[in-house]
Amino acid sequence: MSVNTEKKSAVLKERRTFDVGSWLIPFVAVLVAMFIAAVLMYLQGASPLTAYTSLLKSAFGSAPGIGKTLGKATPLVLSGLAVTIGLRAGLFNIGAQGQLISGALASAWAGYAIHGLPMAIHLPLALLIGAFFGSLTGLIAGALKAYRGIHEVISTIMLNSIVISLVDYLASGPFKEHGQPLTRTAPVLKSALVPKFFGLPLGFFIALALSYAVWWVFRRTTSGFRLETVGRNKNAAWYAGINVKRSILIAMAVGGAVAGLGGAVETLGITGRFEPAFNAGLGFDGITIALLGRANPLGIIPGAILIGGMRAGAASMQFDAGVAPEIVDLLMALILFFVSAPLLTRWLRRGKGAASSVTGGWGS
Amino acid sequence: MAPLLEVIGVSKQYPGVLANDDISLTVDSGEVVALLGENGAGKSTLVKAVFGLLRPDAGEIRIKGEPIVFGDTNAVIGRGVGMVHQHFQLVPVMSVAENIVLGDEPRRGGLLNMKKARAEVRALSERYGLAVDPAAMVEDLPVGMQQRIEILKALRKEVDLLILDEPTAVLTPQEIDEFLNVVRVLASQGVGIVLITHKLREVMAVADRVVVLRGGKVVGITTPKESNEEGLAQLMVGRSVVLRVNKGDAHPGKPVLTIKGLEVRDDRKLKAVDGVNLEVLSGEIVGVAGVEGNGQRELVEAICGMRPRAAGEVLVGGVPTENMHPHAVHLSGISHIPEDREKHGLVSSYSIADNLVLNQFDQEPFARGWIRNAGEITKNAHVLVKQFDIRTPSIKATAGTLSGGNMQKVIVARELSQDFHVLVAAQPTRGIDVGSIEFIHKQLIAARDRGAGVLLVSAELDEILSLSDRVAVMSGGKIVAVLDATGADRAYIGRLMAGLHD
Ligand SMILES: Nc1ncnc2c1ncn2[C@@H]1O[C@H](COP(=O)(O)OP(=O)(O)OP(=O)(O)O)[C@@H](O)[C@H]1O
Ligand SMILES: [Mg+2]
Prior knowledge:
- The structure holds two protein chains of two kinds.
- By secondary structure, chain A is mostly helical.
- Chain A has one domain (21-348): ABC transporter involved in vitamin B12 uptake, BtuC (Orthogonal Bundle), CATH 1.10.3470.
- Chain A has helices at residues 2-10, 20-43, 48-60, 63-88, 96-113, 119-148, 152-172, 202-220, 222-232, 234-239, 244-271, 282-292, 300-321, 326-348, and strands at 196-197, 200-201.
- In chain A, strands 1-2 form a two-stranded antiparallel sheet.
- The radius of gyration of chain A is 22 Å and the shape is globular.
- By secondary structure, chain B is an alpha/beta fold.
- Chain B is 32% helix and 27% strand.
- Chain B has a six-stranded mixed sheet, sandwiched between helices.
- In chain B, a hairpin with a 2-residue loop joins strand 1 and strand 2.
- The longest helix of chain B has 16 residues, at 173-188.
- Residues 14-15, 17, 19, 37, 39-45, 86, 391-392, 401-406, 433 of chain B line the site of adenosine-5'-triphosphate.
């Protein structure tokens, strides 16, 4: 059997195809961003070493610090997950911010306006209402894409503006706390507050469970396979009997629900009421986190914790090293830049090589 | 003087596959070197290295005596090298003319001079006898047309070395003849040519030298004079290959596929299929012969639910099938090997295992309820990879890393492994090596003998005549004749195809 020996010489051995290179990008992106930020701090006359040590200590050095970090990380996991679900289905959901904010306001309303329910009903109800309104916001972009072919990047950016303005109006008008000068709602009732769990916010565990669930759905179920196939090759998906329009709707609705839940958890667990300024940027951070996590529902968790830690430790960094807390925004921007630059080049070059990534659907 | 191209000890390792293993060869000016080898032997890998598209792990490549920098395509192009790629490199949303001039556009005042581009393309097309419509959008075109565009693009620039990676896989016999003439003329003008093909007839016709690869190694260098088709096939696959199709008599039964008064429009809304009536019986193979562009593609797509049927019906076992719903048609009993494998047939970033269940991922046993059954999917993949001899280091490798012929085998394996009453096969052996063609032909005949009806569309009249029991000749969107395949007169069929019937 000369054929078989011939075949064996060409096929050396079965090797697991774990793509080390693709997981290297996020690490390198974070390190390079931290290095550039360090140079900037140094030029400002601050000590980067002191700054980073203080950041690390306050974010991860004590039990309350870790609690705070995970609290900050919770909505970030969820908004990262929302963006991830979209990316998997070939949609670049820039609208996590709008979806998150609509969920935040809706859950705040449910938290203060609905009276007389026990916690076992009130809290889940308020969370669900948050998810529902987030989902609705996502669904609008999904429907525009599915039935009108409007690119989701455009529609979600526009929806962000609409939702942010609408929510500002509601929080400063109809939903405003009575007799107070600030633009914010009344505090959420005790029965709708997300409790702590050994000093750790319960919301974080909800976010972890949801990430795992999404990971499992994509890995093991036919529903996940449908969305993912649409994300990778719409023509082949249609040909294989997958309803492409419905998949787009589902991806945007579920992504929106997850982002809305993120807003709800933040409102009911951390801020205790809706105040527009509190939620600024959480949804946008989700984009960075999803890309850092390579659009993997579990991969986003470390990224969310890292960024949550930076946010949690920013104040003490300012105190100890004298650097402005805005350095964290700068860091985030740098990370986003370095993590998306290689992805973008690959996207621009897609079709040339055989390998395509989960972000293959950005342009279509 | 140094040879035009020298490849010295080139090796390329992919995860789990040594795609090129210490390959050395030379090509002189004015010489046509045919590169032969099984699917996955490493032909495309080698020419991609020459063209600067990938970096080998070892070895050296010299053009006109000067080593090239690996991975620098632009430099290689600058040294007078052109290439026709196996996987088309066209921009789907641009016109034919735009694609051909892309990279070196005729300009007027900094802008693309569209008029000049079209004129240039028309001239090219006439000069080389490859008909294209300069204004058509590439995404609307059948693969044969796309192939012509790729060739014209490569011929547009004067080159010293031309690399052709399976340029003829989807061309019609007449086009191939013209193309081979072009190759001869270019060679006589001093152009060195590397030609990759699975069609041994072409090798015998134009090659000065033949280099045979197997498992990434050079296993033989010969000339057409010293060898013959059987010998080359044997050298390629390492065993003797039966190049002729052996089949028993057909035992046709009841009609399984009935096409009634079918009318279909093409992408420009013109009538492409004009009142076709055709019946395929169980236990027979019906071949559709025709010059490309006479409605075969639209016919197949309409049957398979991929293109709206403007009028008429398609019935499987007497039951009408759904319009514009490929999966419903599939479930009603039609298996389909699509013409455009990369667009419809495969998800290139999915594993081979997932691609092998792509249109049955939610059916038993590959899913229980809505949970996918990884064990069954893996088992299925192992069985089919072995049975269809798909060359890959792992069933987890993505389909995009497969060689062209092995991608085709994945689709053929998936479609043939399912239950079907009707098989619609469009270019089923496109880009497949002689050894595997023999196997696939046997499978088609076995499907027929199990009682399926097979509708075969191929650009190769030889393939149609040798496999079919009946031949339907298509011309101008109509079936102009249905003939018995045994003893059919090639010349007569040729005249019918050209529309010269009386
Ligand atoms: N990008 C890639 N990643 C991993 N493996 C690859 C890649 N490209 C090719 N291979 C492997 O290298 C081997 C040689 O592939 P190549 O495309 O050179 O074959 P080929 O001789 O051109 O075959 P065909 O006749 O089917 O086109 C195959 O086993 C293929 O699976
Ligand atoms: Mg090849």
